Amino acid sequence: MARPSITLKLATTLDGRIATAGGVSRWITCEDSRRIVHELRSMHDAVLVGIETALKDDPELTVRLPDYEGGQPRRIVLDSRARLPLSSKLVQTARVIPTWVVTTTDLPREMLAAQVRQIKVPSKHQRVDLDAALEALATAGIESLFIEGGGVIATAFLRAGYVDRLEWFRAPTILGGDARPVIGHLNIENLSQMYRFTRLAVQAVGDDLWESYELS
Ligand SMILES: NC(=O)c1ccc[n+]([C@@H]2O[C@H](COP(=O)([O-])OP(=O)(O)OC[C@H]3O[C@@H](n4cnc5c(N)ncnc54)[C@H](OP(=O)(O)O)[C@@H]3O)[C@@H](O)[C@H]2O)c1
User: Fold this and answer.
1) What residue ranges do the domains of the chain occupy?
2) What is the Cα–Cα distance from 120 to 111, expressed in whole angstroms?
């Protein structure tokens, strides 16, 4: 199957949490880490989030760096039931910076009029079929994909074995076991089934630690 190369970005506490139990997540990591995330965005053809992140955070997913004159990555939302609001920043700016919605249904006419691109794929377990989605994105010219969450999407890509690289930003904080984990259930029974990565680099960024890994 043709698919883009995939980098998963994670921004967590020391104990691997991405948000409080109630979903408050801004900001876990420091400003310097977030600037590097913008640099990483600029190195990919597209940035992808799950619909819950789009609904909760209303992100722009753009590269916003002083003096940056390069292009903007496409912004992609995995949204099986076409719930992305017309009022969201991603839709409101779709005319200027491409926004694609990977869905199993038809987008409302107003979304298409706002120049949101619909990528309709079959469903699997009532959600976007990841294989079909990635194949469609590769066909549409996406060679590198930067996944920015949330936890459900990160878990789905990891389980499917599609994470080639990790960019992990870790703040010196602890949120505890009732907060939202960065990775959900993987149903691993033996340690031999663990996902193993090779560390490529570690760097202190402000108070945070930035670790880069590739799949072993
Ligand atoms: N710290 C960080 O790095 C970071 C980054 C991003 C977000 N966040 C936080 O994470 C929270 C949101 O994350 P979340 O884990 O609740 O949701 P999410 O990963 O943003 O979105 C999950 C949703 O994506 C849709 N989806 C479509 N196809 C899918 C597939 N094949 N597999 C899995 N999901 C699929 C599903 O909704 P449908 O079934 O409706 O399609 C699913 O519920 C927010 O609080 C946000 O602020 C933190």
Assistant:
1) 5-15+26-215
2) 14
